[in-house]
Amino acid sequence: MTQQSEPAPSTAAAPGPAGVPTPPPPAPPLAAPRPLAERRVWPRTFHDRLTAPLPGLKATARFAREGAVRPGREGLADIPRLPVEPGPLPRAGAGDIAVTWAGHASWIVRIGGLTVLTDPVWSRRILGTPARITPVGVPWDALPPVDAVVISHNHYDHLDAPTLRRLPRDTPVFVPAGLGRWFHRRRFTVVTELDWWEAAELKGVRFDCVPAHHWSKRTLTDTCRSLWGGWVLTAPDGRRVYFAGDTGYGHWFTRIGRRHPGIDLALLPIGAYDPRWWLSDVHCDPEEAVRAAQDLGARRMAPMHWGTFVLSAEPVLEPLTRVRAAWEKAGLPREDLWDLPVGASRVLTARPPRRPAATTAPRHA
C-alpha cells in the first residue's frame, strides 16, 4: 500500500492561554530506511497527490489561442550572454559536499563519498523541444564513476533514456513510486521506488523522497500513473542537500524544512514560468524560488531549470536577473546564492572535528 500524503498544515501558531502563541506541533520523525531494490505494489494512479487540477479543455484552448512556448526575438537575443564556464570537477574529500551544474536539473552531487547524478540529461535535444541553447557543463567522459542516480519524475526533460543508457545497469537508481517499471524494462537491477516521506540508504548516505507541486506524464495514456517528488540527500555527518526536481510553489516547502532542518544547500528551479496563468501550479518563478528557500530554512540556494532548454516564453536571461534581485530584496547574504554558470562547481568543505574541551590543572596553594 502507498503511504498517504499528509494534509497541509497551518503555518500560523495557534493562540494559547491568555493569547500567548504556542509553537506548531513537532514534525513526525523520519521514516526508517527501506531496503534497496524492494519490489512493491503501487496504486494505479497518483491523481490524489496533485496540488492543483490539471488544465482542462478551456485552459488548453486558451493556451492554444494566446499562449507562447518560446520567447520572441528579443528574448532569445541574450543566448550568447548565458553564463557557461565548463571546468574540471573540483577535488572533494569524503567529508566534503561538492555540486556541479551540468545544466537544466542535472547536477553532479558528491556527498558522503558518493557521486550522485540528479535527473541526468546529457542529450542535445529532448522530445518536442528545440536543441539545448548551452552545452552540457561536464562531458560524460569526464565524470567519475556514478554511485547513484535520483529521478524526480518522468517528464522528458528530467528522465532522458539516451543518457541513462550510458550507465551500467547495476547503478543504484532512486525514483518516485510507480516509476520503477520504466527502469526494470531497461534492465536496471538496483531500482528503489519510494513514496513521499520514505527513505533508503546507500553506503551511509540517506535518500529521502519528499513532495513536490507537479505531475507526471510520458505518453498519452499514463498521466499521473507514477509519482513525482524531490529528494533530500543526507551525509553521514548530517549535512543535507535538497534537490527540488520540478515544482511549483506551495505549502510542501515548509513541511520539508520542518522534517529536514538545517538544509545546507537547496537546488531550486527558477525557469519555465511564463505564461504565469498556465505554469504557476507546476513551476516556480524566481521570486517564489527564493521564498521556497526561506520556507525550507536552507542556508544556501543554487538556481537550476533555466538557461538550458527553451521551454516557455520568458526571455532566456530573465530568470537569473530576477532571482538575484529577489535574493537581494529578501536581505539574504549574497555569498549564499550559488548562481552558478553551466559547468561550474562549488564545494562545502568537511566540518572540522569537534575539539575536546580544554582542562585546567588545579592550582596549589
Structure description:
With 365 residues, this protein is an alpha/beta fold. Helices cover 16% and strands 17% of the residues. The protein is built from eight helices and 13 strands. The chain has helices at residues 57-66, 73-76, 161-164, 180-185, 252-259, 276-279, 286-296, 318-329; strands at 97-103, 106-111, 114-118, 148-150, 173-176, 191-194, 199-202, 205-210, 230-234, 240-243, 263-269, 301-304, 345-348. It has a seven-stranded mixed sheet. It has a six-stranded mixed sheet with strand order 7-8-9-10-11-12, covered by helices on one side. Strand 1 and strand 2 (106-111) form a beta hairpin. Helix 5 (252-259) runs parallel beside helix 7. Residues 18-32 have a biased composition (Pro residues). Residues 1-38 are annotated as: Disordered. Residues 116-306 form the Metallo-beta-lactamase domain.
